[in-house]
Amino acid sequence: MIKLENVTKKFPGMKIPAVKDLNLEVKEGDVCVLVGPSGCGKTTTMKMINRIHEPTSGTIYIQGENALKMNPIKLRLDIGYVIQEIGLFPHMTIEENVATVPNEKKWPKDKTTKKVEDVLTLVGLDPKIYSNRYPVELSGGQRQRVGVARAMVSDPPIMLMDEPFGAVDPITRARLQNEFLRIQERMGKTIVFVTHDIDEAIKMGDTIAVMREGQLIQHATPGDLLSSPADEFVASLVGRNRSIKRLHLIRIREILDEVGRAKPATEDMSIDDIKQRIEESNIRSIMVVDRNNKLTGVIGINDLKKKTGKVATDYMEDIAESVTSDATLNDALSVMLECGEGYVAIVNEDDQYEGTITLGDLLNVVKEDS
Amino acid sequence: MLRTLFKWVVVPLLIVALGAVIVVYSVNNPTDSLVARSLTYSNVFKALNEHLMLMFVSMGGAIVVGISIGIMLSRPKLYYLGRGVENIVNVGQTIPSLAILALFFTILGLGFRVAVFALFLYSILPILRNTFAGITSVDDSIIESAKGMGMSPFRILKKIELPIAYPIIIAGIRTAVVINVGAAVLATFIGGGGFGDLIVTGLSVRRDMVIFTGASIAALTAILFDYIIGQVENKLVKW
């Protein structure tokens, strides 16, 4: 649990305080997203929690203890910290980077090694491949993963994250977000997450704290924020197209059973059988899977006109992008727009087919909801 | 493996061997008695010995003092002084080395120790400047993430700032060594000895062979140290 009480921060030489009389409580296991325009004090607020910035007045409690009275070094060792620029140490290998906090805590070597391997695997980097590489050898997305791994390695109950997925392309970002949410579901850490992107806030947050000019305007769940914004500012921040934003709140698996269980074709099916299956399920494209239910391609109805006899693989096209079922509907929508198709295939982590969602399904969800 | 052997052993040995060949040849084939008298093994080795002593003592001191002051100036509390000192250092570097030696001659008089002291002061400059620049060029985000993960300022200096700055610091030492070997030749003017003795003797007796021997060994010494430190520098940058 993190609790900020009447916290004010005034930087020397500045007339207006960066953070003014802020009260905020983050419950155990919650992700609280601080969101607002740049210069609103969200990063300053976060950095006061691990005392990178010392508050001018007010108190901060962490797990019930007054953080301002604790030894800052000790305090920080138990708080995971990821910043926007990630700040990986260029002269250390990935393994050494991730082992920073264990080394500071003087863990025994074998425990550190094992934990580093675990946490790298957790964030989707194979330790065998990446352990001995240097940060310059990684892509932006991989570096973000290392940053998150480094913050999580000692299993801190609290994590502070300042736009941790800021510097990567949208598709990679969505993937990192989903992976992170999946990890968080298992770990249940108390997280303060800073972003300027309201879409990311709605997607990641259990609660969202909207800030402006150093003050907390509204602290509410994403649903409440969308349905009843506290004032004009919050309303303009969440924007007019709130029904589209709701797509962030719904995960694909929540609607998959209702709409998306179109049966796939198998690779060795004949064209006639496929045509029949397409007609049955009233769709325009059908996914093709191999014997292990692994997604291999797609066949559009138009390609099959006047064709008979042959097997599916002859007309199959590759699939550019698929999404996992813990992605949000918004992720599905952006993949559809990106690929210029009216559908997207849903797969599990092993690339096995789970269903298909179409643009029509999304429209129905938005309609029902509003 | 063979490559490492070549880089670390064969090339330095070749440079040393070349110097030895020059010395042996010129000592054994004097063009006249004047050359024979100035170019003896004992003369050459005395010059070599003095030159290396000048260099090692002054460089040793300069490395310790230069790096220490560089680190101190990069600390937040003294950082405001850093830029000023950097400027002074840059100006100091523009003073010709002969002028420095002459200056200390007027203050402290003649001798080996005065020459060492002047060379020491002159060599601190590039080392200090590069240490300061190397540490302060470490990205703020790197320092902040280290701090945020619970590293103490001393640990950050030791584990993060210095290792990242090493290549730049070494480059400063390399510059200092090359300047030092060159400037040490001038030590002869204030009685510091070194290869300068050979060159000055050669000039006064007007025998090119003596000048050539002194000058070429001095140059080879500079090349040798520059090469070795360059190798160390390459080895330190792993990323």
Q: What would you note in describing this structure?
A:
The complex is a heterodimer of chains A (370) and B (239). By secondary structure, chain A is an alpha/beta fold. Chain A has two domains: 2-249, P-loop containing nucleotide triphosphate hydrolases (Rossmann fold); 253-369, CBS-domain. Chain A has helices at residues 42-49, 72-77, 94-98, 100-104, 109-122, 127-130, 140-152, 170-187, 198-204, 222-227, 232-238, 242-249, 252-259, 271-281, 329-339, 359-369; strands spanning 2-9, 19-26, 31-35, 57-62, 65-66, 79-82, 158-162, 190-195, 207-212, 215-220, 265-266, 285-289, 295-300, 322-324, 343-347, 353-358. In chain A, strand 12 (285-289) and strand 13 (295-300) form a beta hairpin. The model of chain A has no long low-confidence stretch (mean pLDDT 86). Chain B has 239 residues and is mainly alpha-helical. Chain B has a single domain (2-236), classed as Orthogonal Bundle (MetI-like fold), CATH 1.10.3720.10. Chain B has helices at 2-28, 33-38, 41-74, 79-94, 97-108, 112-136, 140-148, 153-184, 195-205, 208-236. In chain B, helix 7 (140-148) packs antiparallel against helix 8 (153-184). Chain B starts with a helix and ends with a helix. The chains are: A alpha/beta (370), B mainly alpha (239). Chains A and B meet through helix 2, strand 6, helix 4 and helix 7 of A and helix 7 and helix 8 of B.
